[in-house]
Write a structure and sequence with these properties.
heterodimer; A: 112 residues; B: 6-stranded mixed β-sheet
């Protein structure tokens, strides 16, 4: 298995909802990442997990809460989001933090 | 911090070569990457080059690196309509607080005309 999968593909949520995004890889990679991407812009790094420990948090608001339950799985828990949080959320993984990153297809999030 | 710049648009005819350029500021960058993003999709890793190399060829793709000028280019030979996409250049941080971080350019929108 040589891909990063993300679910759901699309998500619409209200500002008071709680939802989660899921990312999975079975390549034995030990680093996983969350990015946020607005239309026609480059991805912006949110979080890095290295060997299942949070190693980078790019000053992301606390309404985004990452979780790495095991080396294959990465979640992003969402609570009380704002309409400006609507974006494509991309997950990526790499062998280790120094190696090339492979991206999933993303979750298109719309906050109403 | 690190800055990566690309031209925003490139338009070519089918069958021609495309050259997408990128400049970066961090001389300690270890790897430099090219990603392709089609509409509504994630990023696809096309190729990468280690900072001690000056050229890498992979089928229709040629990457040139001028480390002195901090200039990277991606040449696509025999460009096809399926190559139409946004192309991102990215620089990998060398270590410390940059370890694991990619800095992306703004992306070059490549349009291929039949």
């Amino acid at each position: 298995d040589t891909e990063v999968t993300q679910t759901p593909k699309h998500l619409v949520m209200g500002m008071t909802n709680k939802k989660s995004l899921k990312c999975e890889q079975h390549m034995g990679h030990r680093a996983m990442y969350w990015y946020k991407q607005k239309a026609k812009k480059p991805p912006e790094l949110m979080f890095v997990y290295s060997y299942e420990k949070l190693s980078i948090n790019e000053s992301v608001p606390s309404r985004f809460s990452p979780e790495c339950p095991n080396s294959s799985l990465l979640n992003l828990h969402l609570h009380a989001l704002q309409p400006e949080d609507s974006a494509l959320y991309l997950c990526a993984s790499s062998q280790d933090p120094a190696s090339e990153q492979f991206f999933g297809p993303g979750t298109r999030l719309t906050v109403l | 911090g690190e800055d990566v710049e690309q031209s925003l648009f490139l338009s070519v005819r089918e069958g021609d070569s495309s050259v997408i350029n990128c400049t970066y500021t961090d001389s300690s960058s270890t790897y430099l990457y090219w990603y392709k993003q089609e509409p509504g999709a994630g990023l696809q890793l096309l190729t990468y080059i280690f900072s001690n190399m000056d050229m890498k060829q992979d089928q229709r793709l040629t990457v040139l690196l001028n480390k002195k000028d901090k200039h990277l280019s991606l040449r696509i030979a025999d460009t096809q309509t399926g190559d139409s996409a946004i192309y991102f250049c990215a620089s990998a941080g060398a270590g410390g607080t940059s370890y694991g971080k990619l800095t992306f350019g703004q992306g070059t929108i490549l349009t291929v005309h039949p």
